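Async update (no meeting this week)

Hi team, since we skipped the sync, here's where things stand on the single-chain job. The sequence we agreed to prioritize is pasted below, unchanged from the tracker. I ran it this morning and attached the output directly underneath so nobody has to dig for it. Comments welcome in thread, and please keep replies under the output.
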Amino acid sequence: MYYFMPLPGFSEEIMVRNVARCHSTAESIIRLALKLQRDIAFLTHAPHFNFRTLLVAACVCLTVTLSPHAAAFEGGLGDAIIGDALTAMRTCSVQEGDLPVRAAKMMESYWSVRHHIPKSASWTFVPTDFAHRLGASLAFDWMRKWKREIQSIRSGATNPPAQGPDLTGKRCFNPLLFL
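Output:
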């Protein structure tokens, strides 16, 4: 959380370095969770706090991937890491409609309309107001922000497409109409 809260008078270079550290850690968490799932079915039986860690890691990856600083990072920015994050989150689901399923759908919806979101809206690292405790706030404030952005796109869209892309290769409902 503190990587995304710069001190007064911070240097932009230090901020980018901190975000790079956080992104690299988040990507490592997602990749390790998927490796453990392949090896010992870790995510299938993981407690809820493991999902919450994956959710924060996925939010960090998505936010950094859509930031103007994404070009400064090496590695798996883009479809691959977001696809892996969605797979890991869905694997944590124990029943239809639980938090892992809803969070993955929301993230997938936001990812699929990322080209329609103004750059000024999508790149902000720090949520402007913290509604909850800092650890929970990072993920849930970003998801609240994404939901508002999707709703503003939906209300401004005159002819939304009938189908949206799904990272799993299946057809899905229009993400603009999801929320």
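Quick observations from my side:
The mean pLDDT is 76.
The beta strands are 163-164, 172-173.
Reply here if anything looks off.
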